[in-house]
Amino acid sequence: MTAISDNQLATRADDETARELAAPNETEIAQLDAWWRAANYLTIGQIYLQGNPLLREPLTPAHIKPRLLGHWGTSPGLALIYAHVSRLIRHTGQQAIYLAGPGHGGPALVAAGYLEGAYTEIYPKISQDEAGMLRLFRQFSSPGGIPSHVSVTTPGSIHEGGELGYVLVHAFGAVMDNPDLLAIAVVGDGEAETGPLEGSWKGVSFLNPARDGAVLPILHLNDAKISGPTVLGRKDPAEVRALLHGHGYDVIEVEGSDLPGMHYRFAAVLAEAWGKIRAIQTAAREGDWDGSRPRWPLIILRSPKGWTGPDEVDGITVTGTWRSHQVPLSGVRDNPEHLAILERWLRSYRPEELFDDAGAPTAGVLALPPRGDLRMGASPHANGGLLTRDLEIPDFRDYAVDVERPGASRAESTRKLGELMRDVYTRNPDNFRLFCPDETNSNRLGAVFEVSDRAFMERVSPGDVAIGRDGRVMEVLSEHSCHGWLEGYNLTGRHGMFATYEAFAMVSASQTVQHGKWLQEARNLPWRAEVPSLNVLLTSTAWRNDHNGFSHQGPGLIQVVLTQRGDIARVYLPPDANCLLSVADHCFRSRSYVNLIVIDKQPQLQYLTMDEAIEHCTRGAGVWEWAGTDDGTSDPDIVLACAGDVVTMETVAAAQILKERLPGFKVRVVNVVDLMTLPRPKDHPHGMSETQFTELFTDTVDVVFSFHGYPGAIHQLVHGRPDADRFRVRGFIEKGTTTTPFDMTVRNQASRYHLVMDAINNAKRLPRGATVLKQWCEQQLAKHDAYIVEHLEDMPEVRDWSLGDRAQRG
């Protein structure tokens, strides 16, 4: 007799479970229907009611909220899916989270958490009785309450859904290196029209069934958005099926509105999808897999917009149209007919069967959800800080660049970061990933390929390098996908970095903002555990994308992050490799921040030893005595400040020119690595004290500040500091083209020669020889203009400039 393998036994068990799931008995159908009706009732109550939550008496205008806010149209479909996934979990023990792309279906997900008990456990005042139900209704979309969408306040959520387009990327990020997790990702047909969502179907091309969990996309087509039809809702179903099949999915379809028939049909397709997922995973994990990309299941659910709501209002069809998208009955307080329709609508769910005399859900409703952490509203995967493990990080000092003299040698700073991340990969095989849109090698981070390939489940050709199914470096040419994958990865408790060209970080800038808002709100919720920070590395920066040109030149993300709240936003501009290593180590260890690190990939001057870099980064800013002529005994004639690698080099070069050509002119050089040290402490927790600020910048001396980004950012940050008008800022002013590296600084009036002239123009004491030096600077700029046109490269005295042995540490 042939022995039956463990793989065969597991497959048979899953097959048997799937068959049971596909054929619910009458009792289970009754439980599904009761739970679904209860969820719909609670959804409508949240939108409309401020009193009489159980309809103990006839509805009156006094029971209706003064402002009717919320979205009904998508909610019945979201609740149907939630009910059936809950049944699946109860039968199988499957760990699952629920991501609602149609984020304004918030009341449906709040109702779901309430019915499974998770909501009351977190918010005890929202008790499972009449008083708690009333509080549930009154808090929705109200002052002092909760938002109308599936927000950070919603238990079980890692996906805001307020800005459409990101549900799939969050779901795929959540299941990477998370083999036991199933992410249910509901894609609304309005959301399916967005660019980020269109690009995110490709997630299946990167998911490894042996190591990762699974995403089950459910495309919910109800044919309507806020005021018209949807593209996929109106397409021929065969075209939609072909589109998704082309993306690599095994498409399963279900349609209808009849009850209980829809429950039977949806139970069958969900069971089919789960069975196929389990078959794929079992084969991959038990060695019965040829390594090719699986065809993962996807469900298309077609149900009416506003299903079970009022068919007509004022003689106009509502259910099944865009009119049910938000509040189908808007004049309930003033229109008795509307009020009567609302009461009939609410009573159609037979609340007396769903809630007992005390207002608690009945046994039939409570029988459906799973128990404990298996409830989707209580899943620790949706509160990822509970699962977060600290990264095992090697000592970053071991990767130090040897700096004998400041500004004398060059190195590619990001290459050292790549070496550090290589070893972080090795020590954290299921807890760290780099996400980068096809630019890992370009950004000098390629050392990670020594220990991991790029993840890729599609066909691999013999000429491909560092790419394959076992890879864990995530490259896809979509900033939205890379950013969103990392967000999902972070929010479920894992660590990583998103690295991209600086200008194209603006493609996903709104995601950075939305994630920052999530972290900000989470800080106000004691039950939300802190998660690994969102670490963003910008390289190939504006000042060194001279070969690509104006389209690749833009430091705008700095400005975006600066506008976020101080307890979330961090911006670092390390001037060299050792500072970058120190900053990266800090960011990898941090929790619940948006950390923005900006540094170029090209060979650049190195200034600080590792010990000096650690001290400098710890302080966030400091005086570089070796770069200036300030002896510290009295105020200098001018302060030259800088933040950013290229502008730091220009500042140090300007200080050297002043030192050599204007002896006796006292110059102080201040470098800022943590941009958030500049504001006052009351404006940002990193803000330096008044005493520290004075020690660096004095209270009266003019400051010529050379900044990597837009000049207005520095004026914003030093607002409220002593005599803030004395700060003269040079930075990127949208002057760009395909040119030489130094010409970028010239075009933006931030070159060493401009800084020297600024120093002379703003010094309180005009030194002897200053006029001659200004003329020389103007001559150098004219010489530069002519030289680059003739020779197609920068002048040797600029191109090859370094401090050499001219700068010695004190």
TrEMBL record:
GO terms assigned for molecular function: fructose-6-phosphate phosphoketolase activity; magnesium ion binding; phosphoketolase activity
Superkingdom to which the source organism belongs: Bacteria
Gene3D superfamilies: 3.40.50.920, 3.40.50.970
Enzyme nomenclature, EC number: 4.1.2.22, 4.1.2.9
Enzyme class: lyase
Domain Xylulose 5-phosphate/Fructose 6-phosphate phosphoketolase C-terminal: 601-802
Domain Xylulose 5-phosphate/Fructose 6-phosphate phosphoketolase N-terminal: 25-386
One family name in Pfam for this protein: XFP
Keywords on record: Lyase, Thiamine pyrophosphate
Cofactor(s) this protein requires: thiamine diphosphate
Family indicated by similarity: Belongs to the XFP family.
Protein name according to UniProt: Xylulose-5-phosphate/fructose-6-phosphate phosphoketolase
Organism the protein comes from: Actinoplanes digitatis
